């Protein structure tokens, strides 16, 4: 596979806990001089404010992934509350107000399947709805970015031969933290450039 001339943005959902996994991920990113984006949950930011600040202090983007990880496409009343509370707590803790929302499960966020309520609320809060191009499925057993996931990830890239820019989805998990150094090496080996969000 050739990633020559193609760019990747690394993104991480959920969290900012578990804090040990986050610290390991941040360390790997720092060692490789990579900036990533983190889509965090408001309720976890409330529990781990220091972890949220760590993301920002190290120069990464911190973005909105809802308060409690519901399927926003199934919600009506709750959408505003889920997004607005998360905006507020992230700003309160980190000093930054998110500019993007990645809906949990991607629900209501993919082109052709946009949820009208999500679109309306995101617009009112000046949030761009974003999803991803490559799903690592790092949360599925065996957790992480091991060999069985690499083949699956490579297959996704090859299905989009004309695309030049990819957002790669991962999660703040111990297995992902463990495998991230070798995964980054693999992306470089394929010829990709890892870009800033």
From TrEMBL:
**Would the keyword Metal-binding be found if you checked this record's keyword annotation?**
yes
- CDD domains, A to Z: CE4_NodB_like_6s_7s
Q: Please give the Gene Ontology molecular function terms for this protein.
A: hydrolase activity, acting on carbon-nitrogen (but not peptide) bonds; metal ion binding
Which InterPro entries does the record match to this protein? Answer: Glyco_hydro/deAcase_b/a-brl (IPR011330), NODB_dom (IPR002509), Polysacc_deacetylase_ArnD (IPR050248)
In this chain the NodB homology domain maps to 6-195
- Please give the GO cellular component terms listed in this UniProt entry: membrane
GO biological-process terms attached to the record: carbohydrate metabolic process
UniProt keywords (A-Z) are: Hydrolase, Metal-binding
Name the coiled-coil region(s).
Answer: none
What's this protein's name? Peptidoglycan/xylan/chitin deacetylase, PgdA/CDA1 family
């Amino acid at each position: 596979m050739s990633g020559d001339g193609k760019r990747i943005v690394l993104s991480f959902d959920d969290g900012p806990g578990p804090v040990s996994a986050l610290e390991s991920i941040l360390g790997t990113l720092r060692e490789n001089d990579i900036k990533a984006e983190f889509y965090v949950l408001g309720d976890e930011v409330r529990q781990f404010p220091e972890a949220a600040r760590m993301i920002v202090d190290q120069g990464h983007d911190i973005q909105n992934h809802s308060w409690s990880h519901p399927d926003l496409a199934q919600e009506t009343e709750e959408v505003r509350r889920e997004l607005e509370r998360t905006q507020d707590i992230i700003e309160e803790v980190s000093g930054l107000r998110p500019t993007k929302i990645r809906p949990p499960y991607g629900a209501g966020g993919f082109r052709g399947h946009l949820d009208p309520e999500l679109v309306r609320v995101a617009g009112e809060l000046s949030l761009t709805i974003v999803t991803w191009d490559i799903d690592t499925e790092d949360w599925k057993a065996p957790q992480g970015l091991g060999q069985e996931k690499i083949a699956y990830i490579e297959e996704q890239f090859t299905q989009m031969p004309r695309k030049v820019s990819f957002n790669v989805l991962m999660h703040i998990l111990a297995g992902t933290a463990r495998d991230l150094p070798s995964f980054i090496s693999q992306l470089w080996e394929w010829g990709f450039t890892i870009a800033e969000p």
